[in-house]
Structures
1.
Amino acid sequence: MARILIVDDAKFMRITLSTILKKANHEIVGEGENGKEAVQLYEDLLPDLVTMDITMPEMSGLDAVKEIKKQYPSAKVIMCSAMGQQKMVVEAIELGAKDFIVKPFDEGRVLEAVSRVLS
């Protein structure tokens, strides 16, 4: 199964995703609260996959994806967005994100996105 890094400024969102992913036997190798941490943790952990919130303090998920993809072109990132952020989701995909999931998380959709991005 995959080694996954979860990045979201809301702790309960990280817990929710972590629970869904662990149930599917994935390993959560790290958690971050903002884009800056995401970039640093990616370099330290080199996970198989990152789930990344779009709107975060210090550095947005979009900027973090840009940074990570610049250094690691094969990085696999799934963006997490709230409803109504379609424009940002499109931008994230253009920057190299592989998929997106919408909050509140639907377990089936999360696992479907993860398996599609990892295959």
2.
Amino acid sequence: MGAEIGGSAFSEEARAEFQRRLRDETKTLKRWFDERRFTYSEGFTGGLEVEAWLVDENALPAPENEAFLANLNHPLVVPELSRFNFEINTDPYALTGDYLSKSRETLERVWRACAAKAQEMALRPAMVGILPTVRDDDLQPVAMSPSNRYAALTAELFRLRNDAPVRIRIEGDDALSLTCRHIMVEAACTSLQVHLQINQEEAARFYNASQIIAGPIIAASANSPFLYGNSLWAESRIPAFEQAAEAFGFRDRHGRMVGRVTLGSDYARRSLLELFLENIDGYPALLPALAEEKLEKLPHLRLQNGTIWRWNRPILGFDGAGEPHLRIEHRTMPSGPTIPDMVANMGLYLGLAIALARTETPPEAELSFDGCYRNFYACAKEGLRARIEWPGLGEVDVQALLHDRLAPLAKETLLSLGLTRADLDYYFDDVLARRFLTGRNGAEWQRNYVDLHGKDFQRLTERYLTLQEGGEPVHAWTC
């Protein structure tokens, strides 16, 4: 949910000053785009973040992240919104050679440290989009991690909503209808976030490619079918997160409200600057905290950007020498089921983003944004069972599309960048292809378990964690 801030209450003077600084920094960013100031690289750099849960001996969420993080004392592991959650960050690596193996080794090394420290506390860590055993009673304000940022987010979201309660309405096999006066449903949604550093000249194409593949990526990786005991969407994180943080910003050209958690309003036309301009014109400041950080790193612009949770978020970053660069943060994928599954999902996203961004005919010229939007929500709801519109093919089954076209395209693209064939053969042939042949992603496995054993979510979670700890990809799991 972002970096800590100095306080949780804001005066009207502070709000006005924040807005002034935000506009000044946006003008500076525009000048940087005009001057082509951003780091240029012949290759790519990628990294990832993984959000996870702590559970107790009954596979129930354990609100122990403060003690866990203090005992662990690891620079790559940080708190999240609720006391049940934590986040692992990995260092970025050049997208070549053994990138996938190196990413896996780093994540596994940190995860082993987390598991060992959790075991000392009679806990287990869990990687899953929505923990099947989490209940509404668990996700109450008392479970919020102690943080000025989180307290301010809650207060400011309700201020923007004119104190209207949060209403969660999701329909799948069951229907969830919930009204509450907090944002903690958001903490039920844990994800895998992939970062891809890109050059300014290609950034709009990469953003659009990431938008177009968001639907198939969700279908491939879905792992969140249950919330509060209800069977909902294959990836219920999508509607749950969007509704929990609902504070509309503006209407798009179709009159559709565009929220703070969003696929967006359209493709980028020329530049990622368009999205930063949208940040200032379309969204009121949610955390108007005045930064002490040096202004040449545009802290207010980055803070504002961090409170708009686009499923593909443009990122302004800086290297060790203070030079700015651009990244896409792809946020659609859930956490879990295993580290091999997540590394494969990351490879699928990276390969497809690069492939589609560099095709001679831009796919955004062949698929309207409305079509992209429909695909995204169809895949979130139906997972690998969805039918979507695809450039040049018309309406297709997303499972067949992934198996026959998209995964092979991503693999060949990564091979052309110099990634090792052994890694690509494993992650694309032994993991992804078999997942698409069986149709068993995390969401499908969970639903199969309930079909066989009923809605015993404790047993489901215990079985899930046992298989997760075994490390075999989800397509090979049995119920």
3.
Amino acid sequence: MSYLALDLGAGSGRAIVGTISDGKVHLEEVHRFNNTLIQQDDTLCWDFLSLFENIKLSISLAVRKGYDLKGIAVDTWGVDFGLLDKSNNLLSNPVCYRDSRTEGLSEKSAKCISKEELYSITGIQQMDINTIFQLWSMRRSDSPHLSNANRLLFTPDLINYFLTGVMGNEYTIASTSQLLNARTKEWSAGVFKAMDIPADIMGKILQPCTLLGGLTKQVSEETGAKGVKVFVVGSHDTASAIAAIPGKGNNWAFLSSGTWSLLGTLNDEPILTQEAMTNDFTNEGGVDNKILFMRNITGLWLLQRIIGEWEKEGLNTSYDYILSESSKAEPFRCIVNSDDPVFNNPSSMKEAIQAYCSRSGQHIPETQGELVRCILESLAIKYYYVMDRLKKCSGKDFTKLYVVGGGSQNEQLNQYIADALDIEVVNGLTEATAVGNVIQQAIADEKISGWEEAYEIIENSFNFKSYYPEDTGKWKDTAQNVSHLFK
């Protein structure tokens, strides 16, 4: 049983084949490609046709490697979309959420609907990049594309349409739009009306773990994939990643660790309180009728940027080296808040960190070891504060934290998190998104009976490792000493 997971990020895409046999899932990456941005006039767009060519190439490569594919499924980043006309033709390349057209619109939208009312309906953290404000910017500018639009398809929905000819809006990706009612899991007519956005361009909500259809004749012939099914999975990559976690009970939380960090918990119902909104928690759709109640945090972005600077200087940037140097540096000399706007996109991350430390009266890190230690300790303390607010908003207490994604391989950071949060930290799912994608396809294909069997397969397939708290006192003292940085 082989299934192709097409996992697309905002910078690159990967095609990973997951083969389920002997009670285990085995992964092989068959293609990796850039997801490039292009400038069209004054607008930053995704090169969708190039992206789709790489999708077809991914399928072809999997077939050429001899895999007997049973299914294909797509997951991507959130909020972005394409618009189709009445003949179901794509009107233009999808616009990137980084485009400037939505700057400041979330604040201006209060004249249409208050932030409090919008959160009470959608449960989504209010950010300029959200689909609601992308569409509102088009309405405000009398966009001809919006006027001529017959259907809106989010990025994974659009890819699925090009693969199968079948349209629909998958639930988890739709939830990122801030246009979905968090309780009913359907489009909110009131929000569309308040923002003067056409509701008739939205499609039927499709749930994860369902069959969408087969490949079109043209795609099948181009790729050599005959009789392959296309499944709907949690097409927001975060939803598929969290679906792969084999957590039991109600006492565990999750941390998706990468450029961005997402710290949260699974709930059966959204939490739409004033406290949740004030603390910037979001209620996004999850797999198996779950709600991902979580907070977005700037994660390893600081480390990634500073490594890039060191590479240009010709310095040693291997992880073994910089983490070794970090372990030698004196602890708790300087802490930064990764979510401070000065770290969004500075010309020099090193200088931004040093300036922040200078302004806040702390030791100014100079060496590679000092800078890496500063970043990792700062992230752990950031998680400490977010976890405290997560407990208060959710009413839960957690004894275990599953860390997934690329950042889960950073053992030093895992230990810091265990110490700072005084919690057992479990890693082992580096490729959580692909695993979740593949497992959902197998469930939809009725080759796996359900989530109980799925979690048994996942537990049998990967080496999970636990990190236990060792020295929590110093971490708590440091967190209290720098609490003013995290308000």
4.
Amino acid sequence: MTLVLFSTEGCHLCEQAWSLYQSLGYQTPLETQDIAFNDTLFERYGVTIPVIAVCNQAGAVSAELGWPFDHTQLQAWLSQHGIN
């Protein structure tokens, strides 16, 4: 399982989402995926970033949390999906 932040360079909301995750102190790395260089990702997330997603071994998204979210919502979502 991989935890991914779909974002793009210069996105202040994406920076806020990253900071929220970091502030919770989880050990699971949060990988960043820039949607600007992938047409499929840009089409899917272009107007909804930041999005945090749980991806399986093949890279398929199994769960997503789209902005806006706060500490409480993010923590509840991460716990629901077994992220520690």
